[in-house]
Amino acid sequence: MTGTRRNLLAFGGGAAAAVAFTPIPWKLLDDVSIWTQNWSWIPPVPRGEITVKHSACTMCGAGCGVQAHCVGGQPFGLAPVAGHPLSHGGLCALAYGAHQMPYHARRLRKGLSRGAEVAPDVALAHAVEILRDARDARRVVAVLDERPGRMVSAMYARLLGGLPGSVYLTPPAPERATAGILSGWAGRPAGFDFEKARTILSIGTPLLDGFGAAGALLALWANREDRVRFLHAEPRQSHTAALADRWIAIRPGSEAAFALGLAGVLVRDGLAKAPAPYGAFSLEEAARRTGLRPDTILAVAHELAGRGPALVIGGGDPVSGPLPRDAEQSIAALNVLLGSEAVCPRHPLPFERPATPLLDVPDGTISVLIADAASNGCALPEAVLRRKLANNAQIIRLSAFQTTAARRADVVVPVAAPSEALEEVTAPACNARAAWGLAPPLVERPEGVYTVPEVVARLAEGCQMPAPGSIDEASEAIQALGRGSTFEFGDASIWTDSEDSGQLEFAALPEIRLEEPSLADGFPLTLMPAGWRGAAAAIPLPPLTTKLYQESELRPGAREARVHPATARDLGLARQSRATAETPYGSAAVSLRFDESVPPGVVEVAAHEDDAARVFALCGDTCWRSAPARLRRS
Amino acid sequence: MLAAGWLLFPALLYTSTPQPAQFSHQAHGEAAGLTCDTCHGFTAEGRFAGIPTTESCAGCHSGLLGETESEKHFFANFVEPGREVNWLIYSRQPDNVRFSHARHVQVGKMECAECHGPHGESESLKAFERNRISGYSRDIWGPRMLRVGLKPGQGMKMDDCMACHRDRQVEAGCLGCHR
Description:
The structure holds 2 protein chains of 2 kinds. Chain A is α/β, with parallel strands linked by helices. An 8-stranded mixed beta sheet of chain A has the order 5-4-17-16-15-6-7-14. In chain A, strands 22-26-23-25-24-27 form a 6-stranded mixed β-barrel. The longest helix of chain A is centred in the first third of the chain and has 17 residues, at 120-136. Chain B has 10 helices and 2 strands; from the N terminus they run H-E-H-H-H-H-H-H-E-H-H-H. Chain B has helices spanning 2-13, 25-28, 36-39, 54-58, 69-79, 101-107, 113-116, 138-141, 158-168, 174-177; strands spanning 14-17, 128-131. A two-stranded antiparallel sheet of chain B has the order 1-2. The radius of gyration of chain B is 18 Å and the shape is globular. Chain B starts with a helix and ends with a helix. The mean pLDDT of chain B is 89. Chains A and B meet through helix 1, helix 2 and strand 3 of A and helix 1 of B.
């Protein structure tokens, strides 16, 4: 062979083609990917004897038990606890990464005062000053507690007791929605006994994907055999819809119409066990609004009545917020009509204080807001919160992380992150049986960082108010009850009430008026924020969960909008193209994904961590569930 | 290029290092009345003890028992001075992997050879072939570059773990093995 240019090119081309038939590219790809795990700046996982510590996850209010696998006392992984009365041997994705939270990149070890870093004690002194001024000026102080029912919640309530006109608030949570309405109608706390139910219908609520304690309902679902059937009504084929025995694909925003349609059938066919004011709501009207066939609504209603006890649960989801009031009431009323034995009285914990729903507070009335650090895993848009604040209101936030909400607060007092301090856990608010336990810390908290009870005590002290107590009181109060059972696991334990639940009696149901959907000219689509528990909550996601949305795309990540391929085709939009989502309240750039589980005409925009504020802004400042929308090619 | 890819590349990819001491599993096996778990056993708490310490070897070899050069070398360099042997471990996994021998051997009733191959019958310790890029042993990838037709005990990649779990219908989530 001569060294001509042609031969050289032929040799190069042949070699390039041949290399694909050798192990070189494939083996190199594998080895290099492993090599990237060994970079010097990646902290190595310690090796050594593995020990186990027991505690509970405090990433949300579900109270799941965890066992931490540790090397040298340092947890490197969490696992569920078999037989735990709340979590039933299950954990959600958030809990699996809870031990990483003390080392989160956004971990706050100093205080913030008007955005500037200050020492923790300086931040606390500033908070005391704000509270003292508010008390002297007799302005309205509010505490926002995402996990009411704890002893520390009672401490907040006692603190507010020394501040005339103050209000103790809780934001909406799916677990409190239906149970809360039923409690109001019964005049006493109500909860669900899932074990008693033979048919469970969830309407717009991710019952099998982040509702209450993840393991409890999934264990019930996995072992259901013929004992219990799960029905799920939702516009999209969500995780819960995919797992349910039957998915009823209703139109977006037609949850109330669906519930009223079911109620209409129960009344018309003599299946209702309580008088109802809405027998006139016809099957045909319900079918027209929901997009279902009348016989589908008929079959579901008959299944609920014929396979009792049945439970019907609403409450929206952790990211896109509560369902409209008419929908929540219609759903709760179904339980009364069905005379469900799975809806039971709930005996509150001895130190539990009633909280006012945040959305019931008149707009522009709160002068000082103290936001607790605990998260319930649900989103609460800043605009919705701000709407309740008076002009020049001040926000004191207790936080372990530098989140968007923390950056916008007047003062941030740094507190222990999950796994860093002894924390209380309670049963999810929907559970008929109350529970209480303490989650021992897994790691030491950084110097200077406070615990929440310490901050409440210091606020009271600074305002010359009586000491608000301590969480030690809780165990004494529970022991004094002289009932219930304690589940012990390692050095942790949880007490569960054993009081017989009995029956609830309801007053006459109120008349439920169906709100007409508002239409906006020029906005033919419906925008719906989407996400998963914790994706847009008060505390950031554990680093471990990046696997879910960045690497595997099992969950939506930031700036993603999912549409049905038919919707995109009608609008002339290409897969993975850039687009602008517009609503009457604003616009945002999104990256399009095609997803056949999204109903035609709907744009699902992922609400994710800091980017969530941008998505919620598209829905206005009263609701964050949906908004009329259009999509424009960028 | 084909020849370079199949012959030269593997030769360049791995470095070969002899073990710091020699050891005959064959001589210490049935002939000596020992089994794998005599040396690689479980503690009273059920934890896998891993590679035996020099002290445990000295339990039998308090003096020279034979006349082989390897035993003399081992005795002079490790037993007498009480030094640990820095064994090069063929099956070492990345730091983000955890593996419970107790769960696989005691609960799953697996034989050592199902993962480790006929290592327990070897007459001498083969050289440790370290991958220049990843740093792990060639035994993790397995002896064949194409990873086709591997026998049980050849290869310890995640694929091999998953194939075995699939065959035995034993579920394991990501965090069952990764930390």
